[in-house]
């Protein structure tokens, strides 16, 4: 199955002529010879541009590849504009499946005889179609007799099988990469694929997405920066989700945003603030923030608010990773490269034998040129590439739990670059992160931890006398048992030592007896042989 899928992928890429994306000078002679021998896999779509062919190829390969194209569509600093414009179509204009099939899936999931039992109106033509699901508009009949404008998200039929096949192939390639690439073990490709597998399979469960949306909506309930639509949880199933219909301008529609007088600078800054709030305040962040999932409300363009949809992929960070990242960001902003290097060592992400001074110098070389510049002059893609090369030099391991965070940061950069190219990402984020770090250390943080632990302490306080008495009572017994174990270990060590000495003496006597016998000293050979037997018996009895 994996071999056939691998062939299908190669066949698709070649039939769409995507080998043209590789510069001729990068192709060794044997690669050119191999390509020429595959005469039956010629470019079948020469009338289309290279960007259109790339989009069509990714679309035909399925959701795993479409999502890759979605991420590339935000990188106008790395790819030509023509390619990015074509890939942007993948964000919400993937070829749909039949509306009648979607209606049947909804009726089956919600156990409806007819869709009109629950919805006053259902639009067969989808509002949007993406890689894993498509969305239809409808009017939900509510208990009070009113109608609510909603959208119904439906998972594509048969999509799980295709995703599992691609994931199996990716795992096989990861095994080969780990074994044969020079940096294979350090890059931990199998762990990265496993993390991606969990992410994309979670996205196939719309009940999980509904729960994510409810959580994000609660986190930003009082926010002026982000709005998450209401989810009708009673009508959600694993392959169907019903939620409030929102009305807004796609964040990628810059002319429309400018036409209504949107404060673009404030909008760009709020995008950065929303990201860091999700990561460091909530430890729960929307990890699929490509432009197709982000809208801007029509209300109050001078005080713009984002609207976020499609919460199928979210990321979480534990307290240790969150603190490590925050301290690294603050150290970067303050250009304290020594601390950055030391944090990497303390976290165990680089080997203990790494020289801090050399690592510090390498980080400074990469990061120093990017400060005090507007976002338009900074390419985080290039910075990440340079950091990757630095990491390879110092044997730094890839951290799979941070892959989603890195991807989301790239999305944020892409959005910021489109909205307000003059935005200084570092200047915007620095006060937020410094304030967060201050909240995590010092007397306020200690007092907050005490307040959080007070209920637990109050619950355990009545049990303290009994627990103390039990500890004092069992302490001497445990010490006595430990002392007995140590004595037994000493005896065993002494016996082992005696066995080794006796065995060595037995071997020495046996060798000496052989030598004596060879020089015709019979009485000496017999004596030494008897001694060897005695020592051997002693070794076996010890």
TrEMBL record:
Positions of ATP binding = 127-135, 153
Q: What is its EC number?
A: 2.7.-.-
- Does the UniProt entry include the keyword DNA repair? no
Q: Does the keyword Lipoprotein apply?
A: no
Query: Which intervals hold domain ABC1 atypical kinase-like?
Result: 90-343
Q: What is its main location?
A: membrane
The pathway entry for this protein reads as: Cofactor biosynthesis; ubiquinone biosynthesis [regulation]
Active site as annotated: 288
Tell me one Pfam family matched here. ABC1
Cellular location of this protein?
Cell membrane
- Membrane topology label: Single-pass membrane protein
Role summary:
Is probably a protein kinase regulator of UbiI activity which is involved in aerobic coenzyme Q (ubiquinone) biosynthesis.
* Family as reported in the entry's similarity comment: Belongs to the ABC1 family. UbiB subfamily. Belongs to the protein kinase superfamily. ADCK protein kinase family.
Question: Which named protein is this?
Answer: Probable protein kinase UbiB
Which source organism does the UniProt entry give?
Alishewanella longhuensis
Coding gene? ubiB
């Amino acid at each position: 199955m994996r071999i056939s899928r691998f062939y299908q992928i190669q066949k698709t890429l070649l039939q769409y002529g995507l080998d043209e994306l590789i510069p001729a000078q990068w192709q060794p002679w044997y690669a050119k010879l191999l390509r020429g021998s595959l005469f039956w896999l010629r470019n079948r779509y020469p009338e289309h541009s290279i960007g259109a062919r790339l989009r069509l190829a990714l679309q035909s390969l399925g959701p795993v590849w479409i999502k890759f194209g979605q991420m590339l569509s935000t990188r106008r600093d790395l790819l030509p504009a023509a390619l990015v414009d074509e890939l942007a179509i993948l964000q919400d204009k993937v070829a749909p499946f039949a509306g009648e099939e979607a209606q049947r899936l909804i009726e089956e999931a919600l156990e409806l005889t007819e869709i009109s039992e629950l919805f006053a109106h259902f639009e067969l033509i989808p509002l949007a179609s993406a890689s894993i699901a498509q969305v239809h508009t409808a009017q939900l009949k509510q208990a009070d007799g009113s109608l609510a404008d909603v959208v119904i998200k439906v998972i594509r039929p048969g999509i799980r099988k295709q995703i599992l096949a691609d994931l199996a192939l990716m795992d096989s390639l990861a095994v080969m990469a780990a074994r044969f690439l020079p940096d294979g073990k350090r890059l931990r490709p199998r762990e990265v694929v496993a993390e991606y597998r969990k992410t994309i399979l979670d996205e196939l469960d719309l009940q999980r997405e509904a729960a994510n949306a409810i959580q994000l909506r609660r986190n930003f309930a009082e926010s002026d920066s982000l709005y998450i639509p209401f989810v009708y949880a009673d009508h959600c199933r694993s392959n169907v989700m019903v939620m409030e219909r929102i009305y807004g301008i796609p964040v990628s529609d810059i002319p429309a945003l400018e036409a209504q007088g949107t404060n673009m600078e404030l909008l760009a800054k709020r995008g950065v603030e929303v990201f860091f709030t999700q990561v460091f305040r909530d430890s729960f962040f929307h990890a699929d923030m490509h432009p197709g999932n982000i809208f801007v409300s029509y209300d109050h363009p001078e005080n713009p608010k984002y609207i976020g949809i499609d919460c199928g992929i979210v990321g979480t960070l534990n307290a240790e990773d969150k603190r490590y990242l925050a301290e690294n960001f603050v150290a970067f902003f303050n250009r304290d490269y020594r601390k950055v290097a030391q944090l990497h060592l303390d976290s165990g992400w680089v080997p203990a034998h790494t020289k801090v001074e050399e690592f510090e110098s390498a980080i400074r070389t990469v990061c120093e040129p990017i400060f005090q510049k507007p976002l338009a002059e900074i390419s985080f893609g290039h910075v990440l590439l340079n950091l990757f090369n630095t990491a390879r030099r110092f044997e730094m391991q890839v951290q799979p739990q941070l892959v989603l965070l890195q991807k989301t940061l790239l999305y944020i950069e892409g959005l910021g670059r489109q909205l307000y190219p003059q935005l200084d990402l570092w200047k915007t984020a620095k006060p937020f992160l410094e304030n967060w770090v201050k909240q995590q250390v010092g007397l306020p943080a200690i007092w907050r931890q005490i307040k959080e632990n007070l209920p637990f302490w109050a619950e355990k306080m009545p049990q303290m006398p009994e627990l103390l008495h039990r500890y004092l009572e069992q302490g001497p017994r445990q010490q006595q048992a430990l002392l007995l174990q140590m004595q037994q270990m000493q005896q065993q060590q002494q016996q082992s030592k005696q066995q080794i000495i006796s065995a060595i003496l037995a071997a020495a006597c046996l060798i000496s007896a052989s030598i004596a016998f060879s020089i015709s000293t019979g009485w000496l050979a017999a004596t030494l042989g008897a001694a060897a037997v005695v020592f051997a018996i002693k070794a076996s009895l010890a």
